[in-house]
Amino acid sequence: MAHNLLKGKKGIIFGALDEKSLAWRTALRCVEEGAEIVLTNAPVALRMGEINKLAEICKAPVIPADVTITDDLKNLFTKSMEHFGGKIDFVLHSVGMSLNVRKGRSYTDLDYDFSLKTLNISALSLHRVLQTAYQMDAINDWGSVVALTYIAAQRAFPDYSEMADAKAMLESVARSFGYHYGIKNKVRVNTVSQSPTPTTAGSGVKGFGGFIGYAEKMSPLGNASADNCADYLVTLFSDMTRMVTMQNLYHDGGFSFTGVSNAIMDALDKE
Ligand SMILES: NC(=O)c1ccc[n+]([C@@H]2O[C@H](COP(=O)([O-])OP(=O)(O)OC[C@H]3O[C@@H](n4cnc5c(N)ncnc54)[C@H](O)[C@@H]3O)[C@@H](O)[C@H]2O)c1
């Protein structure tokens, strides 16, 4: 059900790869709620062509940008403002990639060149997006920027590897930049810490099936789905959450504050 929460708002959505992507689900919900959007992804991801289906449904242009290249981001903001005929109201950073995880390197055997690329793509990129927008004055007063993160930034998850370090940095960037952008333009910057969700990036983590099943059993409400995530993000882009900034917001069915659940104890009791 739509409530027109984003009527008149204009947003840029990074990271819709296929219909399972958190960004894909969010793009659909934002448009349902009345927003106009621009879609963007790395040129290599766009070559898959999937995003054109989403672009058609959302009546959105697709503007390529690699989040590690400042000129790409400048071009993205310039073209988006031309398209909208004005500044942007919200940005979703839904980008992540772990080179070591992808190449099967464990946390005790990291390739540091891979690690630097992971940090650049998954964490520093939020700073790059924010700094580009800040210097171009591309976001309207009271705008909202959200990046997606995972609780491995606070707790040890053995197979999440160097991505845990990237998420800790991502959350730190949101906090630190949130201060400066708040002072300058009342722009808010938050991270949303989402339940494990079966997407391309999520499923890349070793033993993802066990991981998602464990989280489901540990969360009083169960795991938050991609569509649940999209709903929550709509509220954060809307004017209903204007005073929320510099936060890491858990969207995980209660996982983060549960010590142990009966479902997990029952499963272990049977062993
Ligand atoms: N799926 C989960 O379990 C889960 C849980 C918590 C947080 N997250 C986070 O949500 C975000 C979105 O991931 P997803 O699960 O929807 O997976 P996904 O694979 O659908 O999305 C990841 C996106 O990052 C994009 N990307 C990678 N390198 C890029 C680059 N250099 N420039 C621009 N874009 C680039 C990919 O093309 C892809 O669209 C990520 O930050 C991820 O860490 C995912």
Rg calc: 18 Å
Task: Please count the beta strands (DSSP E, at least 2 residues each).
Answer: 6
CATH class: Alpha Beta
The number of domains: 1
General shape: globular
Order of strands across the widest beta sheet? 2-1-3-4-5-6
Number of alpha- plus pi-helical segments: 11
CATH superfamily: NAD(P)-binding Rossmann-like Domain
- The class by helix and strand makeup works out as alpha/beta
Write down the CATH topology: Rossmann fold
Q: How much strand? A: 5-15%
Helix and strand string, N-terminal first? EHEHHHEHHEHEHHHEH
Cα(first) to Cα(last) distance is: 44 Å
Can you tell me the CATH architecture?
Answer: 3-Layer(aba) Sandwich
Low-confidence stretches: none
Q: Mean pLDDT score, rounded?
A: 96
The main pleated sheet reads as: 6 strands, parallel
Ligands in the model, by name, code or SMILES, are: nicotinamide-adenine-dinucleotide
Helix content: 40-55%
Binding site for NAD(+): 15, 66-67, 95, 167
InterPro entries: Enoyl-ACP_Rdtase_NADH (IPR014358), NAD(P)-bd_dom_sf (IPR036291), SDR_fam (IPR002347)
Organism: Chitinophaga eiseniae
Keywords: Fatty acid biosynthesis, Fatty acid metabolism, Lipid biosynthesis, Lipid metabolism, NAD, Oxidoreductase
General description of the model:
Helices cover 46% and strands 14% of the residues. A six-stranded parallel sheet has the order 2-1-3-4-5-6, with helices on both faces. It has a single domain (10-269), classed as 3-Layer(aba) Sandwich (Rossmann fold). The termini are far apart. Strand 1, helix 1 and strand 2 (36-40) form a beta-alpha-beta unit. By secondary structure, the chain is α/β, with parallel strands linked by helices. The structure holds nicotinamide-adenine-dinucleotide (NAD). Pathway: Lipid metabolism; fatty acid biosynthesis. This is Enoyl-[acyl-carrier-protein] reductase [NADH].
